[in-house]
């Protein structure tokens, strides 16, 4: 696979994860019946829905904040097509560590 395909797949998967977390936050904070029923089926108290929604909202905010993103692993830094071993920059990742 090329780097471009890997980046596209990663972006799509991250976007789907963000959509799921966002949907989960809204379901818990609005406190609608399916969310309460689902929590009761799993064994959680329905009174905890809003608290759990606030915790998931904090996790969601950290997940979508690009500044808090986990840096790419060292192996992907070596495969940057726009940089050479002598260069210290990579166009799609910024500066190498």
Summary tags:
97 residues, two-stranded antiparallel sheet, elongated, mainly alpha
Q: How far apart lie the N and C ends?
A: 24 Å
The quaternary structure here is single chain
Unreliable residue stretches? none
Instruction: Summarize the biggest pleated sheet.
Output: 2 strands, antiparallel
- Helical residue percent band: 55-70%
Cα gyration radius (Å)? 19 Å
Approximate strand percentage: under 5%
The sequence of SSEs as H and E is: HHHHEE
Give me the side-by-side strand order of the main sheet.
1-2
Content-based structural category:
mainly alpha
General form: elongated
Beta strands, count: 2
Mind sketching the topology for me?
Blueprint: H1 3-30, H2 33-42, H3 49-64, H4 74-77, E1 89-90, E2 94-95
Antiparallel strand pairs: 1-2
Summarize the structure.
This protein has 97 residues and is mostly helical. It has helices at 3-30, 33-42, 49-64, 74-77; strands at residues 89-90, 94-95. Helix 1 (3-30) runs antiparallel to helix 3 (49-64).
Characterization of this structure:
By secondary structure, the protein is mainly α. The protein has helices at residues 3-30, 33-42, 49-64, 74-77; strands at residues 89-90, 94-95. Strands 1-2 form a two-stranded antiparallel ribbon. A hairpin with a 3-residue loop joins strand 1 (89-90) and strand 2. Helix 1 (3-30) packs antiparallel against helix 3 (49-64). The longest helix has 28 residues, at 3-30. The chain is elongated, with a radius of gyration of 19 Å. The protein starts with a helix and ends with a strand.
């Amino acid at each position: 696979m090329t780097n471009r395909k890997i980046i596209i797949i990663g972006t799509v998967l991250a976007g789907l994860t963000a959509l799921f977390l966002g949907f989960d936050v809204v379901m818990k904070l609005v406190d609608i019946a399916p969310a309460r029923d689902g929590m009761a089926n799993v064994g959680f108290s329905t009174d905890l829905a809003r608290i759990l929604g606030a915790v998931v909202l904090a996790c969601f905010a950290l997940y979508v904040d690009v500044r808090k993103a986990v840096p790419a692993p060292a192996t992907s830094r070596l495969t940057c097509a726009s940089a050479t071993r002598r260069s210290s920059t990579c166009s799609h990742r910024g500066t190498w560590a």
